Known about the structure:
By secondary structure, the protein is an all-alpha fold. The chain has one domain (2-92). It has 3 helices and no strands. Helix 1 packs across helix 2 (36-63), helix 1 crosses helix 3 (74-92) and helix 2 packs across helix 3 (74-92). The chain is elongated, with a radius of gyration of 14 Å. It starts with a helix and ends with a helix. The mean pLDDT is 86.
Amino acid sequence: MRNLLFFLRLTVIVNGCFILSALHEYFHWTFIRDITPTFLVLGLGIGVFLNAAANIISAVLLLSRYSQKNLIPKWMIFFNFLVLIAQLIYLFS
């Protein structure tokens, strides 16, 4: 269970990088010029696959009769799902 919580927390961090990289495309912030490639790789390269895997695992756990599924924070599942929808819209538009 600890590994799953770590995986979901890592997904939240990568989703934050996706949000920053998507916002950077529209606003072109100059003060984060040095770390912009890191946000782009984490957010656009890794974020989509990691978030899809986290949502699949969360859905399987929520639909199963797993006894410790209440240990997963609901806000984390909801946030990851919302960002997955935003990622799919961003990638396919």
